[in-house]
Amino acid sequence: MAQREWVEKDFYSELGVASDATQDDIKRAARKVLAEHHPDRNPGNAAAEEKYKAASEAKDVLTDPAKRKEYDETRRLFAGGGGGFGRRFNGGAGGGRFGGGFGSDGAEFDLGDLFNAAGESGGANIGDLFGGLFGRGAQPRPSRPRRGKDLETETELDFVEAAKGVAMPLRLTSPAPCTNCHGSGARPGTSPKVCASCNGAGVVNHNQGAFGFSEPCTDCRGSGSIIENPCGECHGSGVTTRTRTINVRIPPGVENGQRIRLAGQGEAGLRGAPSGDLYVTVHVRQDKVFSRDGDDLKLTIPVGFAELALGTTLSVPTLDGRVGVRVPKGTADGRILRVRGRGVPKRSGGCGDLLVTVKVAVPTNLEGEALEALEAYAAAEKASGFDPRAGWAGNRM
Question: Which residues does the annotated region (Disordered) include (predicted)?
Fold first, then answer.
């Protein structure tokens, strides 16, 4: 993240800690926020995903003592401005707000211009940029290599695979670390050399009167190193586009449309920089028997009238074999029978329930003894005084 973004981000607030919090307090708070807003726990929730990314940025800075110190100094530097880098400061005869004066003609000076001069891709930090201006004599720090981009792909699973979880190979064609130079960009047997012009900082400093500014080094293009013998396969970038197969573990209980994050499996960074992440969107095919309601597994099973009237035990399929389900005597058509713990695995542990709906299957063509028996039963049922529609419509005609 560029230092210019730090002024407008309150990392302490993102994690819910005070600015003087200890490293242990920050780590505990970060774990809590990241777990609460993890994409796997909030599928399809864009707000939770943004909160997760913001908390990840905050954790990356605040748990690194050097980054945290630099962040605090940057925030203090602009604390009096009341705003971000878009604010302009007037000079006036008495001098600008940073001392030394910006000219007696009251001309405005945009701090953002200094950052733009340094370049977004270079890596000049806030000390490099204003070192000459404040006379602090800050030394340039080596530029950080650029992280690879995040990638997205899709996969399709059977219903049972999604419910139980599955390990599967996934083929990707994307930028990946060069296998010839192992991502360094240099021909095997050689290595990049520190740029003599910027001494590895990636930026060079210039002084103009009262001001000092930095700009990307033109010799190394802001990378801080020069490759004298580029790799013949990646031509010095450390990255090649190739087809690769990675093994992906789909967790149990994944739902249709859910995105799964695979850290470090995205696009490779230049010259050995960290890779981005891979996001896999899962599409789940419908099943002929099962459906889901959250962590509960649902199915509808056909039964005969006699089974409901007399009671029986049904053999019902589950994700792991079959199970016997008792149907009480006199069970009504459409009743839902619950089997505890035979549903979809939960992220928190355990499983949901199996919900079995019984539905009477009516024979379409009765003949012989079956027809005679049913007619005899209908007559006996009527003689007993049973009326299936008794009280059904009240006094309505």
Answer: 35-60
Superfamily of domain 1-84: DnaJ domain (1.10.287.110)
Q: Give me the phi and psi of 153, to 5 degrees please.
A: -150, 175
List all residues 6 or more positions away from 151 whose beta carbon is below 8 Å from its beta carbon.
172, 174, 265, 266, 267, 276, 277, 278, 279
- Domain borders along the chain are 1-84, 291-383
Taking only the tens place, the pLDDT of each residue in 226-266 is 888 888 888 888 888 888 888 889 999 999 999 999 998 88
101 vs 180, residue with greater confidence: 180
Fold classification of 291-383 (topology level): HSP40/DNAj peptide-binding domain (2.60.260)
- 0.85 exceeded by the pTM? no
234 assigned ligand-binding residue: yes
Whole-number Å distance between alpha carbons of 373 and 65 = 86
Q: How many CB atoms lie within 10 A of CB 151?
A: 18
Could you tell me if 127 and 67 are in contact, meaning their C-beta atoms sit under 8 angstroms apart? no
Q: Is 351 annotated as belonging to a binding site?
A: no
Contact (Cβ atoms closer than 8 angstroms) between residue 357 and residue 298: yes
Closest to 253 in 3D by CA, of 37, 38, 43: 43
- Whether the per-residue pLDDT at 87 is higher than 50: the answer is no
Tell me the C-alpha distance between 183 and 162, whole Å. Answer: 35
